[in-house]
Amino acid sequence: MTVNQISIFVENKYGKLCEILALLANENIHIIAATVADTSEYGILRLIVTESEKAYKILKTNNVSANLTDVLAIATDRSAGSFARTLSLFTQSGLSIEYMYCFSLGDKSILILRTNNRESAREVIRRNDLDYITENDLITL
Fold it and tell me: Which candidate, 102, 92, 84, places its Cα nearest to that of 123?
């Protein structure tokens, strides 16, 4: 029900993002989804990749500040309001969304999110029969 995500602290300096992505490209690691949140001094690059453990080791070996975290991945249809309907189920259960990002592929949209309580979030997914995605599912999309 969870997917490995790599969170990387990136200095807000010319070429740093490119350097990090090149490390992964050189090892034939594919990026499935990505988002960047930035401030004036640094950014947080969040990635869903193929071979997340290998990617994490490559980054650490190259002195890149990275963390491996579990996040939830939920498939929705691509209709207007599908993200809002899905997120409202978590809100109605008293869960806060710490962050989210998404992407679409074919007739599906994939919502990646992290809540303030992973176990309660899993219960929301089960109770509402949401279509969750595993890491293997993402790799084979």
Answer: 92
- Residues 121-134: pLDDT tens digits? 999 999 999 999 88
Half-sphere exposure of 61 (CA within 13 A, CB side): 9
DSSP string, 47-84: EEESSHHHHHHHHHHTT--EEEEEEEEEEEESSTTHHH
Closest CA to 73 of 55, 53, 46: 46
Of the candidates 48, 50, 68, 69, the one whose C-alpha atom is nearest the C-alpha of residue 59 is 68
In this prediction, residue 92 carries a pLDDT of: 95
Mean pLDDT value across the chain: 91
Rounded Cα–Cα distance for residues 92 and 32 (Å)? 30
Answer for the pair 70, 132: CB distance below 8 angstroms, yes or no.
no
Across the strands, what pairs with 105? 108
Q: In the chain, where does DSSP find H-type helix?
A: 16-26, 52-61, 82-92, 118-127, 135-140
